[in-house]
Amino acid sequence: MITANSNYQKLSSSYLFVEITRRINEFTATKTHSQIIRLGIGDVTLPLTPSIIEALHQGIEDMATSKNFKGYGPENGYLFLRKAMAQREYGDLPVDIDEDDIIVSDGAKCDVANFQELFSQDITIAIPDPVYPVYVEANVMAGRTGEFSKGRYKGLTYLDAHMENDFLPPPPSEKNIALIYLCFPNNPTGAVADHALLTKYVNYALEHKALLLFDAAYCHYIAKESTLPRSIFEIPGATKCAVEFRSLSKTAGFTGLRCACTVIHDDCRIFSSKSEEIPLKPLWLRRQSTKFNGVAYPIQRAAQGAYSEQGWHEIQGQIAYYMKNAEIIRKAFSPLPDYSVYGGVHAPYIWIETKHDSWELFTRLLHETSVVVTPGAGFGQNGAHAIRISAFNDREKVTMACSRITERL
Amino acid sequence: MITANSNYQKLSSSYLFVEITRRINEFTATKTHSQIIRLGIGDVTLPLTPSIIEALHQGIEDMATSKNFKGYGPENGYLFLRKAMAQREYGDLPVDIDEDDIIVSDGAKCDVANFQELFSQDITIAIPDPVYPVYVEANVMAGRTGEFSKGRYKGLTYLDAHMENDFLPPPPSEKNIALIYLCFPNNPTGAVADHALLTKYVNYALEHKALLLFDAAYCHYIAKESTLPRSIFEIPGATKCAVEFRSLSKTAGFTGLRCACTVIHDDCRIFSSKSEEIPLKPLWLRRQSTKFNGVAYPIQRAAQGAYSEQGWHEIQGQIAYYMKNAEIIRKAFSPLPDYSVYGGVHAPYIWIETKHDSWELFTRLLHETSVVVTPGAGFGQNGAHAIRISAFNDREKVTMACSRITERL
């Protein structure tokens, strides 16, 4: 008899953004409403820049000729892209990362979800709360948690992020954590860890033979003049105990193109059950070469276009545009009594703490203003009285959404 | 301490095609040699057809404008593509499949490798031998097998395919198998099951509450005039107990573009540990919406282009071209004493049985003729004295490879 993976039944509900879409559809089907403005899921809206479009067209022309046609590519990505990624993502940072440390993929979400497959079933895991749900749910599906109860999964260690610690939780007090998920600039809170905090995490990992999975999908939203760390690899010792995920989704508007990378230094190690060191990179390459078949060639060319001199310049304009949106949202909410505004300075997400239940506030904003935000509860217990607002939208819509909301709240 | 998934250590060797590449590189680096002709990995060589190229360019132009820009798409694929897939893949067959049964992905390899996640850890599995290694290795990584010993993994049931049964093994004699992997037209042997054999498998699955995973990646290589089944869903009852994987990789030259689909009917069921029926489709959608982020929009447009009237016509020309290659290869080997030729009639793979050890023959052909084939042993114990030759290459190279080989053997 073919039986189901019973861990799926533990999942608290449908994937957050699927549930939000369901509620929007229910609302729009039954009520008259103004134009819906989506500040929820955090999807880019600006069209791809000219350098990217040109690189795509050229990549496609290659596919039209016998001479330049490309079938299966290298499992870890084309060298031209890995070189461009290493240079542009890490070239200006004090880190020891090169093209051989880069493994190209079709998204940080897939990578961060699949990465846990490399570890044994019984590892202990620490996850921030609030958190991007994928980190948790991938481990629930893999059977590494108990049941969902009172907003949390049994068997996980939660790193509490809240107003009292500026959403920057310290490393766990427990000494037996094996795997720690981190994301800075943070989704959903917009908080950014400084060198001192990240050093504590790296030292924890080195001391306790743990591994850090560091999601840096939003690193290019840190303002140029800031000295905040862009990469976990800026911290001494991190190459040995950390994996970093980077993505072009929010950096270059690739949510509809799909290109990202996982970065693993040769020094990075995990352990056998007998405490022998095992190099991590070959395990991920083995996983990817068996279960993945690479990123489309024209998309890899597009990514190369994004990393070009001109392409990178164009992208900075898009990031500035979204960050201006963030500023507008921050300014709209800041004067409101009973709402505390976080994030939106070095991150495209604004996190707003309230006294209201987050799904109730989500519903109220949807019904009264036709604006979609993300209920904080979708990110964990600590989001129960918060909403996340995304800065990814057209200026006009952001302004309209803000004026609708401030009129009502 | 962060410990490794010890199941990876059970993997018999590196992924087959990675190992082949390693051996080729070793050879080319140390020996003088003629131009290497690769009839190994089975990668298409013809450039994308004009309809696909045009659809790609148009898709990219959409991404260049605010009005038509696309970010995250629907998790199961754009409706325009699911409709085109349902119509073109199934419209002419006596099956009950529509666009809601189609879940678009970036490759049949990924899908077939990831699909086992939906099942409980202790299911019994039957896998043909020889077989596409990914079916096996995904289950090894997931811990569903014992150690590798004498060419086989303990804990798996093997369906022996060999000359005596024309590479068409009957369903297992054991009555407790939960999951059966099938692939017709077969990779690597090129064998194609008829309605009678597939009916036996479907009846087995219905009777024993099993599930069939049916890899139909090569179904469009079945000659037009043939009455052989193109889909498992042609068999009565299959919608309830089978999942089908289809791919544009070999159909339309998409190995470098990445687009495929998994097809699950609403009737398809698996079971809880208490034997209650559980619909399968929502589980796969949940897996994909959590761990995958869709196929690039321009690639989905390209697939739509392939399924257009003109696009489909163009593709038939490519399939005919590769099948002519298959005929040439069959004709070259058929007269040779000590070599028995299979496949290559309704499939792009030619399977050649010999008296030689398959890795030895691989090495001999590489060193003496600079032609790369795939050693049968890479597909299982029953391939120990066989090689697989792929029909995917330029005519000129196929002809040259055949004349080099026939001169030597």
Which helices and strands, and how do they pair?
Two copies of one chain form a homodimer.
Chain A: H1 16-30, E1 37-38, H2 50-63, H3 79-90, E2 102-105, H4 108-114, E3 125-129, H5 133-141, E4 148-149, E5 152-153, E6 157-160, E7 179-183, H6 195-207, E8 211-215, H7 238-241, E9 242-247, H8 249-252, E10 260-263, E11 269-271, E12 277-279, H9 281-291, H10 297-307, H11 309-333, E13 340-343, E14 349-353, H12 358-369, E15 371-372, E16 374-375, E17 386-390, H13 395-408
Parallel strand pairs in A: 1-15, 3-6, 3-7, 7-8, 8-9
Antiparallel strand pairs in A: 2-10, 4-5, 9-10, 11-12, 13-14, 14-17, 16-17
Task: Report on this structure.
With 409 residues, the first copy, chain A, is an alpha/beta fold. Chain A contains 13 helices and 17 strands. Chain A has helices at 16-30, 50-63, 79-90, 108-114, 133-141, 195-207, 238-241, 249-252, 281-291, 297-307, 309-333, 358-369, 395-408; strands at 37-38, 102-105, 125-129, 148-149, 152-153, 157-160, 179-183, 211-215, 242-247, 260-263, 269-271, 277-279, 340-343, 349-353, 371-372, 374-375, 386-390. In chain A, helix 2 (50-63) runs antiparallel to helix 10, helix 3 (79-90) runs parallel beside helix 10 and helix 4 (108-114) packs parallel to helix 5 (133-141). At the A-B interface, helix 2, helix 4, helix 5, helix 9 and helix 10 of A face helix 2, helix 4, helix 5, helix 9 and helix 10 of B.
